[in-house]
């Protein structure tokens, strides 16, 4: 386990409000089904189980598609990582990836993944993956792999102090709580029911659930516990990194919107996504996702995230820039 060093102030700040579950009558991000820890995760049986069509050529299908009706970026990154990882030996583990989302993914057709062997070195290997639909790239992704090498240099920030997942409600439980409140507008009910109907293969527990009646401008920071819905197990540790790639794009970019409750996203899409894997972890066990946005401007926003194992080990770091085109929210006469 890595030794820890003193955290910066931003790393210790866990006061940001959490908008994994957004305002009941604002844009709603979809949310998970209840846990089924005895069942194999659909991420393993379906989403990240690619069909090998030929040498270095794979095909992936979809499970959950966001309300935007463009493919979920995390799914494309996760599948690209599965394809890349299949072309390197078992002693090599992904330590970083860098992706550009160049076209919207079409949920009506599968995605092809073409892997190019950029370089095989002594301890590192690099793969370039192109995700293709309708003959055109929708994502380009470079993945670098490294063999396990010891080092006397070891440090990491300290995980923020937050309540354990056992003390918090899932998004679904929160939605049921909100639905039981009186004076809920029809629009709000519809939004909440849409969340319950979604089939996101993740289980999420916001650390600071948003207040349903009062949305105030908050620091662009949020924290939530997350794990794959269902069992993945220890059989294929490479797969946990692919699942983390899937997880890392979920409700990430909207961190940049937390300071602007009077605007809703008219067009929101991730432009790029980068990830660094630091330690081994199980993505079917609770991990804390710490997200913050250091900057927004010019119709774009930057977000950065850290995925923590619950024992305080830093598992992965992520960065993403996205396009954020917003429109003012029209105040409603009723309570919600
Ligand atoms: C980013 C783009 C759209 C850029 O392509 P482009 O041809 O340069 O497109 P564009 O000109 O920006 O148009 C896109 C759209 O934005 C509109 N637009 C353009 N300029 C303005 C403006 N000033 N005001 C208001 N709207 C504007 C355009 O009319 C386009 O709208 P349209 O698609 O025609 O309805 C493209 O590269 C793309 O689609 N890439 C893929 C992005 C993606 O699919 N990412 C992964 C999925 S997003 C995700 O997973 C994160 C989830 C976020 C979350 O919910 O947390």
Automatic annotation (TrEMBL):
EC number: 3.1.2.1, 3.1.2.11, 3.1.2.2, 3.1.2.27
Gene3D superfamilies to which the protein is assigned, alphabetical: Acyl-CoA thioesterase, double hotdog domain
Polar residues composition-biased segments: 1-21
Domain Acyl-CoA thioesterase-like N-terminal HotDog: 63-146
GO cellular component terms, semicolon-separated: peroxisomal matrix
Record keyword Endoplasmic reticulum present: no
Signal peptide start-end: none
Pfam families: 4HBT_3, Acyl_CoA_thio
CDD domains with a match to the protein in the record: Thioesterase_II_repeat1, Thioesterase_II_repeat2
Start and end residues of each stretch annotated as Disordered: 1-37
Keyword Lipoprotein: no
Subunit structure: Homodimer.
Protein's UniProt name: Acyl-coenzyme A thioesterase 8
Provenance organism: Echeneis naucrates
Chain's gene name: acot8
């Amino acid at each position: 386990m890595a030794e820890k060093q003193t955290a910066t102030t931003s790393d210790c700040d866990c006061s940001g409000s959490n908008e994994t579950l957004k305002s009941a009558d604002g844009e709603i991000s979809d949310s998970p089904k209840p846990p089924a820890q005895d069942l194999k995760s659909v991420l393993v049986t379906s989403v990240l189980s690619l069909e090998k069509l030929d040498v270095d050529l794979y095909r992936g299908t979809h499970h959950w598609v966001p309300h935007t009706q463009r493919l979920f970026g995390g799914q494309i990154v996760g599948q690209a990582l599965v394809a890349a990882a299949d072309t390197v030996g078992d002693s090599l583990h992904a330590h970083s990836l860098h992706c550009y989302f160049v076209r919207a993914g079409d949920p009506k057709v599968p995605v092809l993944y073409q892997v190019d062997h950029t370089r095989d070195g002594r301890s590192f290997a690099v793969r370039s993956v192109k995700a293709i639909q309708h003959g055109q790239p929708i994502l380009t992704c470079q993945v670098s792999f490294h063999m396990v090498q010891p080092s006397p240099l070891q440090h990491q920030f300290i995980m923020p102090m937050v309540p354990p997942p056992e003390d918090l409600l899932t998004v679904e439980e929160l939605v049921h709580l909100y639905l039981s409140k009186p004076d809920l507008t029809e629009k709000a009910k519809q939004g909440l029911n849409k969340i319950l109907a979604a089939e996101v293969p993740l289980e999420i527990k916001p650390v600071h659930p948003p207040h349903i009646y009062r949305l105030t401008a908050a620091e662009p920071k949020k924290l939530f516990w997350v794990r794959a819905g269902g069992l993945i197990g220890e059989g294929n540790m490479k797969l946990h990194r692919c699942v983390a790639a899937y997880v890392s794009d979920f409700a990430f970019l909207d961190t940049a919107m937390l300071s602007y409750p009077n605007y809703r996203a008219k067009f929101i899409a991730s432009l790029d996504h980068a990830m660094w894997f630091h330690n081994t972890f199980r993505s079917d066990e609770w991990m804390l996702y710490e997200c913050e946005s250091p900057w927004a401007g010019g119709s774009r926003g930057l977000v950065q995230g850290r995925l923590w194992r619950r024992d305080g080990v830093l598992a992965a770091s992520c960065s993403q820039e996205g396009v954020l085109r917003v429109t003012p929210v029209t105040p409603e006469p009723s309570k919600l």
